[in-house]
Structure formats: structure tokens, C-alpha cells
Design a protein that fits this description.
The protein is of the alpha+beta class. Helix content is 69%, strand content 7%.
């Protein structure tokens, strides 16, 4: 019973309606307006008389449309064209991202900060703090991945200084990009040179092995084997025909007559010659059939190795020469569409927008304050 009475004594939770919110605003609207006006005036004083106008100067650069690397176009046996040529916007995006990384790199920003005395001017305690502030608040980068262009600029109180720093950043971008290209070409040249020298050694070894083999078995063992095979057939046919002659002589003459002995000697000579062709493997005979499949196979393999190494040479040599040229290149890599300019209009602060934003926020928080106070009084 006690629990039920306590529950009945509890007042139901109050639900706020639109009229409650409007009544609070109507009751305190003058104070809300006055507070917003005060903050608006204070903001106007700050943005018009205290805050310095900030100017933006920027230049527009264009990507080269080339991927860093060696071109394979024109090399015999390569039908894949020029790897350096870019046909899609994807490569623009990669190159623009690479440019952005260079501009935001510690090396680039540190040189800029030191050159223009940002440490003393803005009273930074540490270089890392200065670099972070430069990246977030001073450096301006706007990329267009479709057209492959990028705006590079700087915010500063001095319009002429903003232009000068923007020019320096574009110069730094070009300088570092050239150094990176040269370093990349140097690494490629060293790699290709190593492979080229290895290929020369392998080609020399293959040519020496082929020469030694040909000294032993002739210039073209495959041709010699074919000739030997044909000669073997001729000898077999000749032996058979001479044996038939011998049989005819034996029928006509007695076995001790000279004609029969001469015929037998002739047949023996032919058989010895045939046996020599079939069984000789000491290399002394230029016509031999014993072991001929292995000899021909080894010759083909040695000849193929020489041809392979020559093919590798024909690919590596142009690449090697191209890499040596790329390593020496120091021509500008950045295409400048628009040079940085001296701005004649400030970029920030946005005075009217700042004043209106502060007035709206102050009015909102003032209303919240009075609404909470009214809610506490009514509770």
C-alpha cells in the first residue's frame, strides 16, 4: 500500500511543446538580440581592426603526363609500346600525388622556412611545429586529377612575399623532382649495367663452348649427321650389290682365284668403312653416327644459348644507353601554366561571414541558457 501511494504522489514527467520553446524566446528575445549584437560588434572590431588580412598567391603547374621510368618503345621484340606514355587520368593522379608529397616533405618545407625566417617571424620553438603549421595553414594546394593540373600557393600577410614564396616552392618542386628522376635513372642504370655485364659474360662463355664443340664435331654437326646417314645407306646398298657380284663369281670361278679374293677384299673394305661411321665416337672422324642424337642435341642447345644471350644483349644495350642519358638529364620537369601573382584582394578572414556566424552562435547559446534557467525554475 505504501509503495502504491508513493507512486501516485510522483508527478508525471513534463513534456515540452513548441509553445514552451516559443514562450522562452518571446520572453527573452531582447536579451538574446542584445547579446548577439554585442558579440557581433566585438567580432567586427577584431576582424576589421585587429586581425591582419591574409593574401593568397598561387601558380598553376601541369603534369608532364609521363611515368618515371625507361621507355621500351622501339626495342626489337617489344610490341608493348612506350611505357612512359600515359593514356589515362590514373597516371595524372599518381603524378599529382607525388608532387604534393614533395611540396609537403620536410626537406622542401624546412628550406622554405629557413629561407624566409618563419621561425623568428612567427616565434616557433621547434622546426617540427613550424613545418606542421606551414602544411596546415600556409601551404595551398588544389589538384585537378582530370586535367592533370595543380595550383601551388601560399597564404601570407604580405602579397609580394606570398608571390615570392610560391615561386620558390614551385622551384623547389622542380628541383627535387629532377633529383628524384636522376636518382631513379641512376638506380635503373646500375641495375641494367649489372645485368648487361652478366649477359656479356654469359654470351662469351656460350660462344667459347660452341667454338670448342665445333672444333671437335665440325661447324654444323646436324648437317654432318644427315650426310653420314645418307652415306650409310649408300654403303649398305653398295655392299649388298657387291655381295651379289661375289655370289655370281663363286658360281663361275673357284674360290682360290684372284677375282674372288679381290671382290671379298672390296666387300671387307666397304664393311669396315660402314662400321667406322656407325661406331666411331672419338671425334677423329667428321662423319659418324654413334652418339649422333646426343651430339646434335648438345649442338642445338649451345647454339640456342648463344642466340638467347644475343637477344638479351639487343634488349639490354638500348636500355643501358637510355638509362645513361636519363641519369645526365637536368632539364626542367615542371610545366608552369600560370606564374604566381601579387594578389590585390585578401583571401581571409571572411569578415561578414565571421560576424554572422558569431552572432548566430551567441544567440543560440544565449537562448539555451535562458531555456535551461526557465526549466529549472519551473521544476
Amino acid at each position: 500500500m505504501t509503495g502504491n501511494s508513493e507512486d501516485s504522489n510522483k508527478s508525471p514527467a513534463r513534456e515540452f511543446t513548441l509553445s514552451d520553446f516559443l514562450s522562452v524566446f518571446t520572453q527573452y528575445r531582447k536579451k538574446i538580440y542584445i547579446t548577439a549584437l554585442i558579440f557581433g560588434v566585438l567580432t567586427a572590431i577584431v576582424v576589421f581592426f585587429i586581425m591582419d588580412p591574409i593574401f593568397l598567391s598561387y601558380g598553376t603547374i601541369k603534369t608532364s603526363g609521363k611515368v618515371v621510368g625507361l621507355s621500351l618503345g622501339g626495342i626489337p621484340g617489344t610490341e608493348i609500346g612506350d611505357f612512359g606514355e600515359v593514356l589515362s587520368g590514373t597516371s595524372y593522379a599518381k603524378e599529382l600525388a607525388f608532387y604534393e608529397n614533395i611540396l609537403k616533405s620536410r626537406r622542401c618545407l624546412e628550406e622554405t622556412i629557413i629561407k624566409y625566417n618563419f621561425m623568428e617571424e612567427k616565434k616557433y620553438k621547434h622546426m617540427q611545429q613550424a613545418i606542421k603549421d606551414f602544411r596546415e595553414n600556409i601551404l595551398y594546394i588544389l589538384k585537378d586529377r582530370i586535367s592533370g593540373t595543380m595550383d601551388v600557393g601560399v597564404y601570407d600577410k604580405n602579397p609580394a612575399k606570398a608571390k615570392e614564396i610560391s615561386e620558390f616552392l614551385i622551384h623547389q618542386l622542380d628541383k627535387i623532382n629532377i633529383e628524384m628522376n636522376i636518382l631513379n635513372a641512376k638506380n635503373q642504370r646500375e641495375f641494367i649495367q649489372q645485368r648487361y655485364e652478366q649477359s656479356i659474360d654469359k654470351l662469351t662463355s656460350a660462344e667459347d663452348s660452341l667454338k670448342i664443340f665445333q672444333d671437335s664435331y665440325g661447324i654444323s654437326p646436324d648437317v654432318q649427321v644427315r650426310i653420314a646417314s645418307e652415306l650409310e645407306i649408300q654403303l649398305e646398298a653398295e655392299i649388298e650389290s657387291e655381295k651379289i657380284k661375289l655370289e655370281l663369281l663363286q658360281k663361275i670361278l673357284t674360290s682360290n682365284q684372284d677375282e674372288i679374293k679381290l671382290q671379298e677384299e672390296k666387300i671387307n673394305a666397304l664393311e669396315n668403312r660402314l662400321s667406322k661411321i656407325r661406331n666411331s665416337d672419338d671425334g677423329s672422324s667428321k662423319l659418324q653416327l654413334k652418339g649422333s642424337p646426343d651430339v646434335v642435341l648438345k649442338f642445338i642447345r649451345l647454339k640456342r644459348e648463344v642466340e638467347v644471350q644475343n637477344k638479351i644483349q639487343s634488349v639490354l644495350l638500348p636500355l643501358f644507353e637510355q638509362a645513361k642519358i636519363e641519369e645526365k638529364k637536368e632539364i626542367p620537369t615542371i610545366l608552369i601554366l600560370d606564374q604566381p601573382f601579387v594578389p590585390d584582394e585578401k583571401t581571409k578572414p571572411k569578415r561578414i561571414i565571421s560576424i554572422l556566424a558569431v552572432m548566430l552562435l551567441s544567440a543560440f547559446f544565449t537562448y539555451i541558457f535562458f531555456f535551461i534557467r526557465s526549466f529549472i525554475k519551473s521544476a
